[in-house]
Every structure is written in structure tokens, then in C-alpha cells.
Amino acid sequence: MSVTDDPAVSVCFVVTIDGIELGSFNTCEGLGCEVVLEQREEGGNNGHVWQLPTRLKYSKVKLSRPLTRETEKVARWFASMTTGFKRRTAHIEARTGDGQTVATWGLLEVIPVRWSGPTFNPDSPKVAIETIEIVHHGYVMGA
After folding, report:
1. pTM for this model (two decimals)
2. Residues in the chain, pLDDT under 50
């Protein structure tokens, strides 16, 4: 296996919204889509039920990372929603530890739906984690 074909074992996810980099995240969940099917029964045909594809459904994308100075960028992005929602294009790049891009996903019409900040508890010291969730309406080809 050549070096360029190595699987991405340890990656970070760099998120950019319309050219504004929100920073890198340690985890990314929810990239994918599903074909929604409609079932139709045909009279006199008892052998099967028709499975008809109707539309694509995209799941929420959830990104998490330890709290950093880049949190301010996320806060500004969320704060910009108070004057109205503008659907934007996002790009998520999976990068290896040495910064090589493994894969890129472009997301159409992105809207942030949730930001969860860290929980601070002196009884159980843990890394302060922030999480953002975004929704989108499809993928950009050739991102």
C-alpha cells in the first residue's frame, strides 16, 4: 500500500462556511443520506409490495472538539443568525495528523441548529468539549 493510499486512522475535520474557517474538530458524525421509500400494494399482486423511491433525506451533522480560541468563530456564526438566517455552503475536510486532506464534503444550504458548550464540574475534571450541529439540503459535487 502506498503512502497516499493509507486509510485515515487519526484525522481531524476542518470546517469552512462560505470561506470562513471555523477551525478543526475531533469528531464528525452524521455525514450521509437516505432514500425515503414509499410502499405501494398492487391489487391482485400478492407476491410483493412496490418500493418506490421518493426523495433523499439528509441527517444532521454533529461536530465536537475541545474548547479552543476558535470557539469565538462559532459564536460569531451563531450570533449572525439573530438578524436572519442565510443558507450557506460548508466544506468539511478530513485531514490526517500531518495535514494531508483525505476527503472533502461540500454541504448545501447549511443552517446551524445547536451549539452545546462544556460542562464545568470541579468534582470530575474533564476536557471541556463543545459540539455544534448543522443541517443541510444536499451535497456539492466536486467540492
Report:
1. 0.81
2. 1-2, 143
**Domain total of the chain:** 1
How, if at all, do strands 129-135 and 139-140 pair?
unpaired
Give me the CATH number covering residue 24: 2.30.110.20
Which three cell numbers, joined as nine digits, stand for 30? 452524521
Domain limits at 128?
Answer: 3-140
- So what's the pLDDT on residue 143? 47
Cα–Cα distance measured from residue 97 to residue 8, given in angstroms and rounded to the nearest whole number: 9
